[in-house]
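Example 388, ligand pyridoxal-5'-phosphate.
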Amino acid sequence: GPTSAFKDVALSILPHLMTTSYEMNDIYGEVIILTATSGDTGKAALEGFKDVKGTKIAVFYPELGVSEVQKAQMVTQEGENTYVCAIKGNFDDAQTGVKKIFTNEKLIKEFEESNKMFSSANSINIGRLVPQIVYYFHTYVQLIEKNEISMGDMVNFSVPTGNFGNILAGYYAKMLGLPINKLLCGSNENNVLYDFIKTGIYDRNREFHKTISPSMDILISSNLERLLYYMSNEDNEAVKAMMEQLNSQGKYEVSVEMKEIIRQEFYAGCVFKEDTEKTIKEVYNKYNYLLDTHTAVAYKTLMDYKRETGDESVSIVLSTASPYKFSKSVYESLFGANDKNEFEIMEELSERTGVPIPENLKGLKNKKVIHTKVCEVNEMEEFVRKIN
Ligand SMILES: *Cc1c(COP(=O)(O)O)cnc(C)c1O
């Protein structure tokens, strides 16, 4: 897609799903999209909403929490209706700040008076998850066409997971009838989901790690709430109670029955820096395929799963980004330390591996920087107010 992220698929459809549904419901006025990003959502959303009539989009990213390439992608964003702001905090701070604005009645009223309303481009918007379901069916059909599987065969999917959006789309695919055995959830050092699937206890009270897979540096995984809804037999009250505990204590525990169902559907893997780097190198040497740091986590998770369970059925690893968005980490995994800037490393990586750089990333270093704003978390509201 236009930004070399798997998120491009859903985010190029979402603006049109939104504006069409507003028209169908006789809602006229402007939609203000507010987005928190750990790196990739921001750019993909900006591209999706850029100059779409009746919309404006604001993106908040953690100042020190994205790769140089991801940052360059966002600060050079063109379009009359785009706003970008770095925040002094991590992704969870940005996401919490945006969620607060969505429930800020005073601000909502101010915007309503000029016929504007807020919406989200994060995967808390169901319009993000629905298009992603297609990946799973599409992959399955491809495997049938290549005679790798027969119709009805069970397969596994391994997904590098942060906000639990992509993997939840896989669970929806299963609910719709796709023959999926296990969904494998890969985590990095921020392994809150790994612990949750293993123990049934969700506990965000832990150190936040800055990792080489920054799009998964998340401790509050928003879409888990949706999974809990299904796993609790659609018990709204139970889910609400757990979410309130998460808000007040940063922690909750699911019932024994729920834990069992979750473990039947999901396998958890947890892959730290050293193993991620090793995996990138192994896969490159073996298959001449360049994994990005996130995809490497899912790949290693699958290897661990196979070794632990002996399950030999066909398995699919979801690749989530171009390795060139994380050039430095990928380069260093293969060839050792390199202190040049990210764009020089990008070129070197391509020269040494022969894997071409996507056009949209190649031209980036010569683009004009347009967005330079940096704010504190508590200044996010003011930034949004100025868009009105
Ligand atoms: C967003 C993202 C993920 C995590 O996806 P979720 O839907 O948030 O779980 C993984 N890898 C990359 C490269 C991403 O951009």
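Summary: The radius of gyration is 21 Å.
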